[in-house]
TrEMBL record:
Protein name: ABC transporter ATP-binding protein
Sequence similarity: Belongs to the ABC transporter superfamily.
Database matches in Gene3D superfamilies: P-loop containing nucleotide triphosphate hydrolases
Keywords in alphabetical order: ATP-binding, Nucleotide-binding, Transport
UniProt keyword Secreted present: no
GO MF term set: ATP binding; ATP hydrolysis activity
Pfam families: ABC_tran
Top-rank lineage group of the source organism: Bacteria
Residues covered by the ABC transporter domain: 10-238
């Protein structure tokens, strides 16, 4: 995937946090770009909340830097943070006031927010109907969305949410996911969400960054984004043939095709290659009349991959 530098909204550069001798976040670097929903994923205690707190300047970092739209959170805090909308702890609202009055209250404390903008964000998070109701009657999901509306009021370039689906039921999680997707598109902003729930991240995000014990472990495009990448990336393919030995010789002689394993019982070979190399491989097998019975991509679930990346630490 081609990276346009001007699309990078958030950049972590070797971000490190130590508490005494303990290294909580260890030289963590990654980017988040406009239009992306990136999941910061890791098991409990991996350092997600600490990372997010450093990004939004709630705690200092021991080393490295965070750039938001190119502004350092360390040396240009006010400029950097002006581009951020965040919910790090549970959003606080006056329960005895309506949703609308809560947002109006926030507007009074913040320069440059128009009433038109309030209506716009309320619409985006699907709360137009509920604006006249007192916040104490809102469900947890509605409160979360009101928090997101408030975080969006000043038109930030990035929305940062720490465990936004905590405590939500499955339908609330689905709603949240749909709203975040709409927000990323309509507002053309970047979104960073943290979670230890792999299944949610898989549904919600276009990319996940996996951390464990404060360290970067892996990053992975998800869904449609991943499919685009697959045409050039190597995939594992199983090919069932009539003559396995001959097929093995052919495959070993081909550039760009790596033999992963032979399954003599099933008369199958597993190869790793990209789409172009696979096309040449199949052509060659057919040309030598080896008899190709079937070609199947070996699909690994994201969960299997995570178990491999994190050395068995399960992220449910
Ligand atoms: N100020 C601190 N002093 C010492 N240890 C700390 C401090 N802050 C966090 N930790 C430890 O650092 C580790 C990472 O904590 P953090 O809350 O960032 O993890 P997390 O990935 O958000 O976990 P969870 O999913 O459980 O919320 C934990 O082991 C925590 O106990």
């Amino acid at each position: 995937m081609k990276v346009h530098e001007e699309d990078v909204v958030l950049r972590l550069q070797q971000v490190t946090k130590k508490a005494g001798k303990q290294v909580i976040v260890d030289q963590l670097s990654f980017d988040v770009r406009k239009g992306e929903i990136v999941g910061l994923l890791g098991p409990n205690g991996a350092g997600k909340t600490t990372t997010i707190r450093m990004i939004v300047g709630l705690i200092g970092m021991t080393g490295g830097d965070v750039l938001i739209k190119g502004h350092s959170i360390r040396s240009s805090f006010a400029k950097a943070i002006s581009h951020v909308g965040a919910i790090v702890e549970n959003p606080e609202f006056y329960p005895y006031m309506t949703g609308w009055d809560n947002l109006k209250q926030y507007q009074r404390m913040t320069i440059g927010i128009t009433e038109e903008r309030i209506k716009q964000v309320v619409e985006i998070v699907g709360l137009s109907e509920a604006m006249g109701k007192k916040v104490r009657s809102y469900s947890l999901g509605m409160r979360q969305r009101l928090g997101i509306a408030q975080a969006l009021l000043h038109s930030p370039s990035i929305l940062i949410l720490d465990e936004p689906t905590n405590g939500l039921d499955p339908s609330g999680i689905r709603e949240m996911r749909d709203y975040l997707k709409q927000i990323a598109q309509k507002e053309e902003i970047a979104i960073l969400v943290s979670s230890h729930l792999l299944s949610e991240m898989e549904m919600m995000c276009s990319r996940v960054v996996v951390i464990q014990q404060g360290k970067f472990v892996h990053q992975q495009l998800i869904g449609a984004q991943q499919q685009g990448q697959e045409q050039t990336a190597a995939n594992d393919i199983r090919i069932r043939v009539r003559e396995l030995e001959k097929a093995e010789q052919v495959v070993r002689g081909l550039d760009g095709v790596q033999l992963v394993q032979l399954d003599t019982a099933a008369s199958e070979l597993e190869v790793s290659c990209n789409d172009e190399a696979l096309a040449l491989c199949v052509e060659e097998l057919c040309r030598q009349q080896i008899g190709v019975y079937r070609i199947v991509e070996v699909k690994r679930s994201l969960e299997d991959e995570f178990l491999a990346w994190t050395g068995g630490s399960r992220i449910v």
